[in-house]
Design a protein that fits this description.
DNA primase DNAg catalytic core, N-terminal domain, DNA Primase, Chain A, 4 domains, alpha+beta, Dna Topoisomerase Vi A Subunit, Chain: A, domain 2, 24 helices, globular, five-stranded mixed sheet, five-stranded antiparallel sheet, about 575 residues
Amino acid sequence: MNSPVQQIKERLSIEEIVSSYIKLEKAGANLKAKCPFHNEKTPSFFISPVRNSYYCFGCGASGDIFTFVEEFEGLDFKGALKLLADRAGVQLPHFNPKEESEREKLYRVVEEATRFFEKNLEGNQPALDYLRARGLEDKTIQNFRIGYAWPDWRRLYEYLKSKNFSDAEIEKAGLAKRPEEAGKAMYDRFRGRIIFPIADSSGRVIAFSGRIFPDDPSTGSGQAISQAKYLNSPETPIFSKNAVLFGIDKAKDSIRRNNFSILVEGQMDLILSHQAGYRNTVATSGTALSDSTFSKENVISNLGLVRRLSPNIVLSFDADSAGENATLRAGKIALALGMDVKVAEMPEGIDPADLIRQNGLSAWKEIIKNSKHIIEFILGKILKNSSDARQAGKEIKSKVLPFVNAVPSSIEKNYFIKKISDLSGIAEKALEEDLRVVEKEFKNEGEEIKEAEDSLQALGKKDYIERRLLGIAFWQEIQEKPVVDFKQIFEKVGNREKYENAKEDLIFQAEIFYANEKDLQKDTVEMLSRLAEEKINEQLAEKMRRLHLNKDKDLEMFFIKEINDLNKEKEKIKNDRLKDK
């Protein structure tokens, strides 16, 4: 009998899967599109229905329907397998708990905790009344699997122990904490809170965000709990704050269909927006954008996933200083990534959830409809609040022109310069001169954003190839009659220790992927070739960086020669690979 992977491949074509994410054009016997994995103006992403695979001549992204879904959705193999199996109507086998990997156990313990929290909410009338008072319908509460954590110290921990989960698994899942004092029992991380599960793109719950309830709860012993209003899961082996947005699993299809996303801050903002019909809404709550510390990598990773679904985004944060700062920092990087960024201006002192509850769908629809491009939004606030033309000019230079500078297109830059000139009365020539100054000031920031995006793309690609190859090597190592030279794979890939904790997952992937696969040897050779190419790309990036920083003319020629040699080596690898096809 065919493996689940083979059954899925027989039922789902590469054209069907890829076209459900991006628009395809005919190109002879193949299809083409703009690559979803890197910015480009001319399509270089080709899909071969005959080979049931894709390849991008721009960035080198390649693979089958599983690879595509993993990279596009930001999922691991099992997440992609679950998503595609559901779509193909293929029943996945029930796995023996004794053979579960660490990650699989963490998914299971988090799922068990989700059910526990859901059951708790059913028996908590005050919490249900609160959610209903905030405008949530019972169907919505169930759909988002909202739950409740009782204010007891160990109720969840004891429940999970009764389900045979170990202390280590409960702690690694971020559900309980180990006390500093030795010998004391572990205690629940979430206590006295309404719980909002955070799911990955395939719908698996991976983390939680909890709002304290009631606002002044007490423990079972009557002692007051002094805690923050919101508490989020820590980073775990299955949850990375910079790789997911709250609600992405429920929003992704609507984002693709409507060709824009709405980014809000709070869970209630998102849930009520979905309930009102705007299912293309995602939220930063519980993820990296809501952190007080902010990094370009985090935003690029989050926004990168949303950008693949649609380049158009509307930001709708609270109309306070924190919300404005979040709008500006996320908006600037979204512009640099080539996204079209608009801002939905909220009334002072009200958030999207309150607006929808108090004024209904029509008010929210009007706010979204009247959203302005972020540059026009910032400019409008400056002109509205400035009575002095000179002061307005200074603010335009310091607050608006950096956003114009972040726009990649020269045509769009010229459009906004003219727009600013028309609305402010400042001559275009003066604005252009100031923009040149701003370009120099923010040159490093632009390069950092590009480097962060490139490094994330390169790391993702290289990591994927390494995982696939090491999965094959780990699998073949335990076979009586190996089909491929696993020792050669270990030697060429290296990094074996880095993936030891994921060994069982990787073996599972290789087993299920290549159970009836005749092309195991061919795939291994091709992936080793791509890995060699990615390693050269890393060296090229480092040489280019050093060439850029170098001030010595003699060293400049040395770096140029090294770069040329690496490019020749890379070209040879590509040509050899094409000969083998």
